[in-house]
Write a structure and sequence with these properties.
Blueprint (H helix, E strand, L loop, with lengths): L20 H32 L3 H4 L1 H42 L1 H6 L3 H28 L6 H26 L8 H5 L3 H12 L3 H20 L24 H28 L9 H25 L5 H21 L2 H15 L2 H9 L7 H10 L3 H16 L6 H17 L3 H6 L2
Helix pairs in contact: 1-5, 1-6, 1-8, 1-10, 3-5, 3-9, 3-15, 3-16, 5-6, 5-15, 6-11, 6-14, 10-11, 10-13, 10-14, 10-15, 10-16, 10-17, 11-13, 12-13, 12-14, 12-17
């Protein structure tokens, strides 16, 4: 393995002739993979809901379990980055993800909802390691003034994964029409178990293929010669003379990541069930899954466009515009029905596009050697994807899925505040005093 330790000389970031295109392309494959796997959860939600006859609140344990991993594993992952460096952390993360993917096979054979949740948390632990290592690596892999544009570009390929996943997941996992709940309730215990085994079997092949692909990708990353970014690495035991808690843009950025991921995952998780409602579109789960691709596809298109716009427009200003757009579209969907409600909620994906990479870039601004630790804090905040969907599930069980979307609106309003006020780094705050 050619990955360098944090103590090796590495490649100087100050070299003007250094070409970062190849390492950036290699790292971008990671963004695609974790986007694909994260979005497959949107297909698992309706699939496991029908298999195990779950309420909205119980089925949202899928997202709760998956995104809770970010809270528990982000800081340990940041310490691993300090210990073995960015590249080796990416390799370990991929291998952990592969183990999680293979765990879906016994979960489907049993079948067992708790085992599915266990597989998800292992998978998410690996993705957490990738996020902690890859996001800041892309930010510091080039000029600071183009960091936001660069991260948006790589995140666009993350969105490519999220766009493809619903289509593939819908074809492979939701290929058979599930029984209606009334029919499931009439089955004998033996027939019910046989039905669950039959339906759960559709999960095995996709996740076996994914597991093999992840192991192969780990080998590719391991043998690739990626440059070491010494200025953004913090060796274990090294005194820095600064603290992440002294950077309000980071602390408020963590809240911004929490609200953004919470809103994005809440909307994506409910789309299949939302479009199945008679007053929205009345689609079957399989047909509805196809439309979920428009939500994530909009994010992909928006990130490619945003990558270009962010070279000319300040990150905070464009983030504010997108926050206004998302809050407005979700509100329109709540107040309408039919195709207006359907397409307005799908259009949210386009305005979601630049939010995560922009908040992340603004959050780690001016952190220097604390960049890895700051990345750990921001990735902990992805736990919003666990908490907000669960809260929305509880609300949807009581007032209906249509009007439960007021929670994402609240999230987007905080992002608007962060974009305009909370994202200012210490140098800008000091200049205004």
């Amino acid at each position: 393995m050619t990955a360098q330790s944090p103590r090796s000389p590495g490649v100087s970031v100050s070299s003007a002739a250094e070409n970062y295109r190849r390492p950036l392309a290699v790292v971008t494959t990671l963004f695609f993979m974790w986007g694909f796997l994260t979005c497959l959860n949107d297909i698992l939600v309706p699939h496991l809901k029908s298999i195990f006859d779950l309420s909205y609140a119980k089925v949202m344990l899928i997202q709760f379990t998956f995104f809770s991993a970010y809270f528990f594993f982000s800081i340990p992952a940041a310490k691993i980055v300090d210990w073995i460096g960015y590249q080796r952390t990416m390799v370990v993360g991929l291998l952990v993800m592969g183990a999680g993917a293979f765990l879906f096979v016994p979960a489907a054979i049993v079948p067992s909802y708790p085992l599915f949740l266990t597989a998800l948390i292992v998978l998410a632990a690996g993705i957490t390691m990738l996020q902690v290592a890859a996001n800041p690596y892309v930010i510091v892999l080039g000029k600071p003034e183009t960091a936001s544009s660069r991260l948006n570009l790589t995140q666009a390929f993350n969105s490519l994964g999220t766009t493809i996943a619903p289509k593939i997941g819908g074809l492979l996992i939701l290929s058979a029409a599930p029984l209606a709940m009334e029919q499931i309730h009439k089955l004998s215990p033996a027939a019910l178990q046989a039905y669950r085994i039959q339906e759960a079997a559709s999960v095995k092949v996709p996740y076996i293929i994914i597991g093999v692909a992840l192991v192969l990708l780990a080998i590719v990353i391991g043998v690739s010669k990626l440059p070491k970014i010494g200025s953004a690495e913090h060796r274990l035991g090294e005194k820095v003379g600064d603290s992440i808690w002294k950077h309000p843009n980071l602390v408020l950025g963590a809240v911004g990541i929490f609200t953004y991921v919470g809103a994005e995952v809440s909307i994506g998780s409910f789309l299949v069930n939302y479009f199945s409602q008679p007053d929205i579109a009345g689609l079957s789960p399989k047909d509805a899954a196809g439309y979920v691709s428009f939500y994530w596809g909009g994010a992909m298109v928006g990130r490619f466009i945003g990558s270009a716009l962010l070279q000319k427009i300040r990150t905070g200003h464009l983030l504010g515009v997108c926050a206004i757009g998302t809050a407005s579209l979700v509100t329109i969907s709540m107040l309408t029905s039919g195709h207006v409600a359907m397409w307005s909620i799908l259009a949210v994906g386009f305005f979601n596009s630049i939010m995560f990479p922009s908040i992340f870039t603004l959050g780690v601004a001016e952190l220097g050697p604390l960049t890895g630790d700051g990345s750990g804090l921001l990735n902990m905040a992805i736990v919003g994807g666990a908490i907000v969907p669960e809260l929305q599930g509880l609300v949807a069980d009581r007032i209906g899925i249509h009007h439960a979307f007021f929670l994402p609106v609240i999230c987007y309003l905080f992002i608007l505040y962060y974009a305009l006020v909370g994202s200012k780094p210490n140098s800008e705050r000091a200049a205004q005093r």
